[in-house]
């Protein structure tokens, strides 16, 4: 079969379209014929060697949608032919091995492309809102609201009844406004957010997050769930201490820390909403698997609204 290999840590040029051995399911596993693989910042960070992978030569990609074509020992053969969403490793390939315990059946009306467009981004957004205990009527600031995670946070928060302020670029302002947010702040054009905000959810991080800590309301919560602009500043403790009388809370969220069964149940609920048309995830572009390097370049260049999807 064909897959994308990270030849060496570095630029998108290190992504190589290659032939690799066919996959074989072990006990408790299934083989999925991949119809769509999601492209996310996590893949870019892995390609650069920032996520604990110590040896190049791996296949990136953490989420796929497709159809089960084979099952391993101790797995119900009736699963063959089922359309599913799955998370794991080695997603940029024609076939994907997944644990049967992590499979999420796709309802009618939700394509494999739509599944990965929701997928990890929607799950990160869902658990970010849960972790911050965002309540109806609370004021939320979302950074990077045109990005995959940010757009899902904004959309879910609006449905939750929060008062949402979304930060984005000038060129993406209209698309972000269409998500239903109450306020859109255009970077470089509108004044910086003044707050107060009960919750800030930040998939961007970097040094600019420091100024936003001061906009938190008393008992405000700041959660970082991504690093589009680089990892969170090492000076975050100082910024939090300056607001000590307001008792701010700072936390990080990685989807890896959420138990598998919770992720599966949340994904089922999100896909059910999507099937009813109550939740959408825009797709920026669908590219062929051999175009993975171009997808990474597009993601790193910015200006992408919605999910980039690879189609093997």
Automatic annotation (TrEMBL):
What InterPro entries does this protein's entry cite?
ADH-like_N, ER, GroES-like_sf, NAD(P)-bd_dom_sf
- What Pfam families does its record include? ADH_N, ADH_zinc_N_2
Taxonomic classification, please?
A: Bacteria, Pseudomonadati, Pseudomonadota, Alphaproteobacteria, Hyphomicrobiales
UniProt keywords (A-Z) are: NADP, Oxidoreductase
Under the heading Gene3D superfamilies, the entry gives: Medium-chain alcohol dehydrogenases, catalytic domain (3.90.180.10), NAD(P)-binding Rossmann-like Domain (3.40.50.720)
* Record protein name field: Zinc-binding alcohol dehydrogenase family protein
- UniProt xrefs under SUPFAM superfamilies: GroES-like (SSF50129), NAD(P)-binding Rossmann-fold domains (SSF51735)
Keyword NADP attributed: yes
> Which organism's genome codes for this protein?
Devosia albogilva
Annotated ranges, domain Enoyl reductase (ER):
10-310
